[in-house]
Amino acid sequence: MATIRxxxxxxxxxxxxxxxxxxxxxxxxxxxLLKDRELAKFAGKSVDTEHQKAEDxxxxxxxxxxxxxxxxxxxxRADNGxxxxxxxxxxxxxxxxxxxxxxxxxxxxxECQRCLNHLDQHAIIAIEMGYPIEEKLVEDELQGDLKACxxxxxxxxxxQLTETAVDEEIDAEQxxxxxxxxxxxxQWDWPVDxxxxxxxxxxxxxxxxxxxxxxxxxxxxxNRNALDSFEVIxxxxxxxxxxxxxxxxxxxxxxxxxxxxxxxIEKTDSQGVTEPSNHx
Length: 280
Prior knowledge:
Elements: H1 8-20, H2 26-56, E1 69-71, E2 82-86, E3 93-98, E4 109-111, E5 118-120, E6 125-127, H3 133-138, H4 142-163, H5 172-186, E7 203-207, E8 212-219, E9 230-236, E10 247-249, H6 251-259, E11 263-268
Antiparallel strand pairs: 1-6, 2-3, 2-6, 4-5, 7-8, 7-11, 8-9, 9-10
Helix pairs in contact: 1-2, 5-6
């Protein structure tokens, strides 16, 4: 066995530890001290790791529309670990969950038993304890808040895809298709001051990037689980769309227009031209 040499001034300390801890030899004391030193190093790393983990923990978005209404996919912490889940379409309470913070829900699906819509973490609303639900029910404001919460989330989610590198696990076009399906299934009138999240026959959209109008004629594909390509007419404001030739916009181009937050509703078959608004 190799000899462990120590300075004279440490011998007294080693002998004291030898007596106090009943070691069998000086070598045993030194090996014990070295082991404690290594543990101390690892303990320091653990503290650093925990600190880094706390810094890396997801934080709630700063600009979401409601403090105590959150789409489930953005939920990281819940008051007292309790969440009440609601359907944004019909205002039905789906369930309540008791969870440990921080919350990490990557996939969550369930069917609303009232309107029978299949919902996932991109559409289910989590209501926290601070939301005045009784007051909102009495004032008939709950349904409007649920709808506004989801629209705000979809808008911000698509906008973030243009501002940051798209996660390899996120299929942006598939996300657009999913949001589009929700709007169709919910039969919502989309607000004219919010960029659309879908593309549908019977609508005329304004492309804010090119300042042109796009009248949607009909789909030219029949995809069941993906965006369709459409036959459309593109024309400038004031021009006669009847004198403009039709063309095909493929699904990739449609997805890009929606993700870039360029398209707003100009009119539908059932309504006249919308009131002009200043979009930023």
